[in-house]
Amino acid sequence: MIKKYVEVWENCLSVIKDNVHSQSFKTWFEPITPIKLENNVLTIQVPSQFFYEWLEEHFINLLKKTIKKELGSDGRLEYSIIVDSSYETNSPYSVLYPTSNVRATRNPMMSMPLDLNRGTTKDIPNPFIIPGLKKIKVESQLVESYSFDNFVEGECNRLARSAGYAVAENPGKTSFNPLLLYSATGLGKTHLAHAIGLQVKNNFPDKTVLYVQTEQFINQYIESVRNNNQNDFVHFYQMIDVLIIDDVQFLAGKEKTQDTFFHIFNHLHQNSKQLIITSDKPPVELKGMEPRLLSRFKWGLSADLQMPDLETRIAILKRKLYKDGIEIPQEVVEYLAYSITTNVREMEGALISLIAQSSLNKKSITIELARQMIDKFVKNTTHEISIDFIQKIVCDYFGLPIDQINTKTRRREIVQARQLAMYFSKKHTKSSLATIGLHCGNKDHATVLHACKTVTNLIETDKNFRNFVNEINKKIQH
Ligand code: ADP
Ligand code: MG
What is the pTM of this model? Predict the structure, then answer.
């Protein structure tokens, strides 16, 4: 008897697994726990209201089909939603990876190769003959936590991630050479580049991997000119097996450094050594680069990274919390992922500030605290029209405090402000009725629909009302 519901749900999961992306499966199905099976009703427990609505919105047909298959046509599904009551903030429950690591805490701006050059010049009087160079141990400058395990896969990074993985399995031997990763800032280029380097070191401990930031490379070059040991500089780089050069756009306009890099590039490429390059633009848009260098960049594969979608953002935040051994309520994680659409770094920044705020002020981490934080954060980072932004404009217009919209109050002016916020959210955002309801006082989609109808009716019948709706609308669109 006890086993039955577990079994039923497991059977459902095996069908579901074949029908959704693995990322979706991890995000939306793995956290579900089956609870009971009574009168042909299977009850499953989900972590939050938001979770339930997301399932209903995106996976309802699939769920229906699998339930029917398992329990017959009168089988039903019931959700039990966990209501988080007492939040124990900052209570570590498990740490997956060592959080401190010698390499990870090293200052990456250390003049690593120059130290090494000093070593080599001492051993080798003639810089053109470099026997024994291979024996030198190169500090890779890789950050251990930027691993593949910690890099969440999504539609946004699938090509780049799998190309990176292929490169790490077979460095220098695939057609992805160089592998050029590009994206706007904060979307994971540096992380992915490190992940490839770390994976190569795992797979091939004898290979020499080096991660270098372009600015560091430029400074080292300038230094080598000053010390008149450019050859050592070039030779050092030519003995690397996997060279990762981050933010190559900084080479723009630096002709001499580009020239030197060109020679290093050719040497490595000819010897089937792997190059991994990151850039904030695709090669065609890189200005101030020598054409011959640009054409080299196009030899291999250029793969871009996009802003992750909501579920991937949630998964990224969860991964980070898990890695740091911190627990915060699911609804807050969802709220952060939902609200920050600029880039992953901003989102992680908001999470860190939130955790800091809560531990400094000894407040528990709630949606309210997150909202206050995001007001500060997102104001100058995004101009996208969000539900929050609309609520703020509507409340400012009526001189109401924004948190009133999310209370249960039935006071007329609040009800009206809430209805307007719902109406404008439907008009200006791509959010579903359910999502809008969730963010406007935790209402269901029927309430939102009703609000939209009420506002539309009033616009048609009441001239005053129509005027202020127009004014608010202007403010929302600037
Ligand atoms: P970029 O180099 O493109 O500016 P970073 O690699 O520095 O971006 O990424 C910014 C932050 O976002 C890092 O802390 C990184 O770990 C995190 N991040 C970005 N994408 C992902 C992802 N897919 N999974 C996990 N963390 C990510
Ligand atoms: Mg970077």
Answer: 0.64
